[in-house]
Design a protein that fits this description.
homotetramer; alpha/beta
């Protein structure tokens, strides 16, 4: 079943191909100007910081449903090894990791998704090969720093966690922005909270908790793409597995928000961001905007990256 | 040959064990207060950003001299795979990585080094096992954000790159700070530039370039530990393989600055930071202090972490 | 709850420490003589071969219950890459793998298990460190070739698969050997079939199938250790996750057969061997003994190894 | 510069496409019949065994010249971990590995090489993607057991090691077979010894030794392809990095023997086989033919596999 007409209509209306030149590889991140970053820094008034990554551990959120997207598996290369043979001198401890770049808190880069041979800015999909993405690789984003706004839809609705499968609408985003007393403006990074990551606070986290976290989940709907487009949002992230509501639409529309955001708009999107402590603090002081640094790790040709985003208020 | 008396004397004079309590696991990062972070944000005046990581690539700086510390090897899990079997619908591209956490631009955590059974804050070295560091794991550093100061010793000396093996002294640091018109104060992160990473600008980078980059290199000397201690520096990083001068001292003193910084002071230290563009900009505008976010990736039990530090002026 | 007295009594009665010298690192594999191998080759009468490994794939049998023991994850380093830039000339395809050495069909080496500070032949357990096993590493087994005997307990009992949790007794082994018309003799490798791996024939293999395969399972019991000891068996393997019955005994006796086989007897043991086709053939021609090559991959310091055992009749 | 006419002429004359049907995926391994395997077993007269793999270790033969083809890096998942919390009970040790499948002693599968869009048996080269080879994957070789013959060209020439770059001719192979008093017949596996792997006996093996081992090396020449074709050899392996002489021919002929063997003939070929001890024994007893099991690990879609070949005399 092909994608429906209304999808293609939306795609055309939010398409950013060529907007920043035929060679552009970072899309809506272009909305972030030095002036925007200067303003972002002015958001810092108390110096309170929040790290928004979930822990990187072999006991992570991946459950094997996506074979290959393995949890961060860190192993030791050395443990207190006397480098000169004498333990009273220098002893070394080293470690290594193997992990899916999309396995934990991460950004999806603009080469992460394609459809119908379409890739952001019209690059051929063959520009991605076994070496990775020669176009739109994650390393093309030099830095990703801006003002960020938390749209806490869960708190707006008065729940700990939105119902699994709840479709977040434009009206929800507007109401959350109003609650936050903030206007989303050009170059902002928007963080959407569904409360889903609250599941990850359970200790110990059992397989069934991870399954519950993964899906179904509340999330963004197709209609909100225009909302982000109009406001010239630089990037968007959420506290769930898929950013968008899942499942939410018929089969042919599998993850349609990904297609619109990444392919048509060129908007980098984040998943599995841990927003619980930040949200509590925002509710506490009533300030929902802040400085954010969520710069990717510089993986050459990468289609994604783990990230430990830092919010500062 | 045991460590000499003067080493142990220095160790005692800069030792921070217990300073932040018997349970402290982050050492000198405690010098960073919310007020310090607030001041750091005020450093941002133009919104210009600098990412200080070298590229993460299988063609990285490791040459095999340290077997196991492998270059970032990113491979593809999926390339434009039609998830529903139909290429006109959602096509997925995913990647994974295997890498030494100390293979590129990184922080050495406080569990990275021990000697004579000594580990920061007196924790038993057996607290590190095949699961990693149960004490002083890199994830214990929630965020690492502060004002940073660039001490550009190479430019101070009027050279592109300090002579390999050049030992940076306290006088050098003082002179570099004076040139920078900045006082290093409590909670600062200090970036020391030797110019060594300029070698990495050669394209293509050949095996002999990598060997030249790795060693010998100019770097910090033992005497500077007191300099950092007195100024209550939160963390230190350099643009070379070992931070400290290498080789520089007799065998029994193998990497002695590591021992003092990490074990005695509890000072997190960084290596392979790429400072060339930042240094050029500082020389240009005469401003050598700036905001820095160099928060670790949240590797549970990690003894190090790759990092893409972001400086903002 | 400590291990019961009868366990320790059994341990003493089958202990092989020192039997092949204080420096021995391969245990019961010493039973295999050149003469035995010569006889093994004489088992080959038809030239029919059987590979006894399950497929190595990211969609393997591990379900995440043992974090870190990841399924074989093979990724591409190159796909038809023109090495000289010209696709009419040499194009290269290369791959790599990351996997738990115990994740698929494998041997447990003699360094795989210890208890109460006991390791085979009295080696200190500290001989295993971040580099692996300096004693009893899997590479110490130069080759592992011998006559093998299939003891098909499932067919003996007239079932496709033994009941989960069924404890295989000495009487079962005797009856299976009688059915096979074979005497187990010194240096034989014994393959025990429970039928559990028949679950792996289901296509596609679903998570619940893998869970069902993993446990509970029929398997060897503690009493059979003497049976193997008396017959001087060189190595033993089964078509299930744990070789031994699981669960089968109270908590303090967690995997007691492993302790006896590996630590006390020094008997290398195999798991997840796929015996279905071989068993069908044996039932067909009535011949349950054959040549077997199950030589480990030469992992220096390895405590286990993937293996693709080859049976030839 | 395109491949010369004589290359294409040779290609046509030894081409095996369709010989074993349009669906064949194992090529010359089809020459091995059950009867051949039966005869192979009869080669076993003393029961003496030889494992022909080099050690699998992070200190392996790869020097980084081929980024990504990393040495076997085995790390520990557990070291004597008390699984029930009590060290007097079951303590577990587990390990994992990451390695290039072509990094040590290995087989090149039939999907390893292509040129001009040509892949063995006319399969489209697009049959290889990020999942690996859907055609001619290494797992399609169920078992690889046969009689093998050692052609010891180094000993024939009276040298420890053939001169680097020495081109082995048909005459050399004939003379080596004559010295061996053996006729190479249909289904044989041929092992060619250049003596190059003798370099790997140096202890400790230094970077310059590894570089010397890698290249240049003596090896097979293009003309020998017909020799193997006429004799219906099932598979061929050598004790060097590239099997064929390197460098040996002009640029456009980069690794031409690979193209002929793999693409045109469908002949699986092996590299980095350690033949020193076997060769010494053959020289000693004058017997150069033996049983060989070199069955691949069952990597689904793999284009190569590590292998620990076992020769038995």
């Amino acid at each position: 079943m092909p994608l429906p007409d209304e999808f293609h209509e939306l795609a055309r209306s939010v398409n950013n191909w060529g907007r920043w030149g035929a060679d552009d590889e970072i899309g809506t991140i272009n909305f972030i100007t030095p002036e925007k970053i200067r303003q972002a820094a002015q958001q810092v008034t108390t110096g309170k910081t929040f790290a928004l990554s979930i822990p990187l551990s072999k006991d992570g959120i991946q459950t094997g449903l996506l074979p290959g997207r393995i949890n961060p598996l860190r192993t030791m290369l050395d443990i207190n090894r006397p480098m000169l043979g004498d333990p009273t001198l220098f002893c070394n401890t080293d470690d290594m990791v193997v992990m899916g770049l999309q396995s934990a808190t991460h950004w999806d880069g603009l080469a992460h998704v394609s459809y119908a041979g379409r890739m952001y800015n019209g690059y051929p999909i063959t520009s991605i090969d076994s070496d990775g993405a020669s176009r739109c690789g994650i390393e093309k984003i030099t830095t990703l720093v801006s003002r960020a706004v938390l749209l806490d839809v869960a708190t707006l609705k008065g729940v700990e966690r939105l119902d699994p499968g709840y479709p977040i609408s434009c009206a929800d985003l507007d109401a959350a922005a109003e609650m936050a007393k903030v206007s989303v403006t050009s170059g902002d990074i928007v963080l959407v909270r569904t409360g889903q990551a609250g599941i990850l606070d359970r200790k110990p986290l059992k397989p069934k908790d991870k399954a519950e976290y993964a899906k179904p989940c509340a999330g963004l709907t197709l209609e909100t793409a225009r909302w982000f487009h109009q406001r010239e949002v630089a990037a968007v992230a959420a506290d769930n597995f898929s950013l968008e509501v899942y499942p939410g639409v018929p089969n042919s529309m599998f993850l349609p928000v990904h297609l619109i955001h990444i392919v048509e708009m060129g908007m980098t999107q984040g998943q599995n961001w841990y927003l619980e402590e930040l949200a509590a603090d925002c509710a506490d002081d009533g300030r929902y905007s802040f400085f954010l640094d969520a710069t990717p790790q510089k993986f050459v040709g990468g289609v994604g990256t783990m990230v430990n985003p830092v919010a500062i208020k």
